[in-house]
Batch of 4 targets.
Target 1
Amino acid sequence: MRYIKKWNNIRGYALRIAVGIVVISFMVAGVNATPASGTWKGTTSQGKPIKFVVSDSYISDFNLSMVCPNYNVQLNTSDILPITNDQFFIDYYDFDAAGTFTSSTSASGTFSYYSNYYFGTCSISGTWTTMLETGNTCAYDLNGDKTVGIGDVVVLVNHWGAKNTDLAWNQKKFADLNKDGTIGIGDVVVLVNNWGKTC
């Protein structure tokens, strides 16, 4: 009986140690917040809208509104940006932004903008937060009609055969839905798998 009691105590301590190791491992490694695909919308610290599309491990169609003292700024980019370790970065001549996905459906980040054009000098920085729009498949709506259908196939056909080595790739890569560097049959498969969905 004494041995059974000792065995139960040892087993209890071993279980506590194992749970402690698992908890510490998660704390050290961090929680993976892989973002869900779809359209993400939110607001900036200036109360202006921000929007972007997540598809697999990429950001595209990044839109951010900002207010300068003498004018408003609307940043729109169709560049496809990688998500690495749940983060993405935008670095342009006069604009920078960074974002971190805090869960699969929420993200936050910072932005800064500087210009000295004929409208006047503007230097602003701020923060932003976004959430995934639920039930959304806009990442595959290539023609912007809020439905995945024949119009999106027409867009694919117009860019058919384009490769990431082409000079005009930056204008066509939005149609590379499977991110393999070529617009072709694999992208049609992605459309077919999302056919008829609306956003």
Note: Residues 10-31 have pLDDT under 50 and may be disordered.
Target 2
Amino acid sequence: MQGIRWLRRAMKTGVWCSFALSAVAAVCWYSSLSSSATLRYVEDDRWLSVRSDVGVLSVAHAWSYFSDDPEPNGWTWEFLNHELTNGPLLGRRSTFWGRLGFTYDLSVVRGSEIAGHVQTLQVPWWSIMVTSAVPLSLISVVKLHAVMNRRRRRYRVLHSLCPRCGYDVRASKERCPECGSGISLADTTSSGDQEDG
């Protein structure tokens, strides 16, 4: 019994987490179509950047990075309109996944003003929204299936039918002649009470 309670609690938690993540992804996707948001962390010669822009979430990481105009260490947050940005970190690629918005790039930057290794991953917001909605959909289908099974069983019991196969068991005492499953005393009593009423 404890296991069933724990499973129900885990399913409810999964549904709410899935719904919340899907809703956050939808809001971020919509807001990225009109503006760009960038969260950046800098520490000496390394930096990590998370950027939402034009329906795409971009994560970039750089190491052994040198610049003539270094940024201060710590967290920075930047929120800009699209007129002031140049779009996603990586452009659309000609591959199948690139056309869908998935891109990955590992490059070495060498120049007079900046140098370093930069690794960039881009994922479209719609894919995050769809992926986070999958558990919600699966759990909803499982719950709907369980409700339909309960209703079907209740209908069969009330109409003196076998709860398993639906065969008429009014003339049977212990077992269904069609599928051989046992007929409980509660099933026959509830159907008899329904007929008397």
Note: Residues 187-197 have pLDDT under 50 and may be disordered.
Target 3
Amino acid sequence: MTDEIYGPWPPGTPLSVTNPQRHAARLAKRAAKQKRKKARAAAIKRRHTVGRGAEYYAYLRSDAWKAVKRRYLESKMPKVCYVCGKTWDRSFEFHHLTYRTLGNELLRDIAPVCRACHEAVHKRNREHPEESIRKSTKRLRGKQRPKTPV
């Protein structure tokens, strides 16, 4: 008797479902969409926490990172704070504009910044996690760099 009421559909299928195959396909599609959404959220979280791992700090102490900094200082790249334009001094730090090339940085992927601007960049990036680190840096750069007369 139950077969006559419910038909050949799997248990738990709503009575309003007229096509069980289509219903199963919709459920599978919804589950896949939720899985992609979770993966995107995890990727965003990873992108904003990549700089906090033990391997990152080990890299910053490595000879490879020291060589990148030395290469930057010996190059013709600007030696002023990327954000506020302050002239270079020994207290400057190098800021990664992207973490994608970590360990394989091009000189354009790092920028010298004074300590105050470096903290401001990372504070803004924590407040706006949807922005890339490069975009956060550029937004602060536009706010703090003095306008030069044309």
Note: The radius of gyration is 26 Å.
Target 4
Amino acid sequence: MGVGQFDGKQGNEVVLRVKNRHLRYRLTTLMSLGAFLSLVSCMRGGTDISSGEAYAVQHGCFGCHGVGGVNENPNFPNLAGQKKAYIVNQLFVFKQGTMSNPKIARIAARYNGMMAAKASQLTDQEILSLADYFSTRTCSFGPKRARPAQVPRQTVICEDCHGEDGISLAPNIPNLAGQKQAYLVAQLNAFRRSSTGTNTNGASRHNIFMTRQAAKLGDKEIDELSRFYAQLDCRGDVQTNPLDQ
């Protein structure tokens, strides 16, 4: 998920329209960096990887996401090798969904009952440690996968934020390469539903950029994009951004 901005009183989107897609990507990245400046500063201080693993055991993360962040369930995302700031962001968003402040809960960009319950039990330090642990795990072993021969035309838009090979260069925009196809389909459908106001409290997701893009996609296009990114190697071929270190 990228950055969503909202009016504090009404929860309205603050829309940024930029025609040049490369400039839009850079602006999106700068907005992301600004929103997470204090967060990245905290993360650069470093956390104990062993503590993150202990917290994952304590809070039952491995039950769904697998030991080391790789699991076999097609509906649960792999976390191994995912962007550190993105994991932190999502855990805080899930946590906000259970807070007593109704204004915060109303503008939360993502809700899932199971994750909200789990995240509500986490301290800020536990969130940072968990993100540090999962982001540094190996997402795949063995030789790299070959890039699929058929590339959906819609990837031109996706590349702006998620990278040419599904590896984002922005610290809080997720990698898509090697992620579960069923999970990606579910997330794109959730974004698309939010564009029509049909998301439910059971599991919902909204983002100022993703909601607009997903609204343009049909079922076939969502399936093609999800299959393509799921087939990419999660380690990618793009140089790692120094801000992720």
Note: The chain has two domains: 48-139, 147-245.
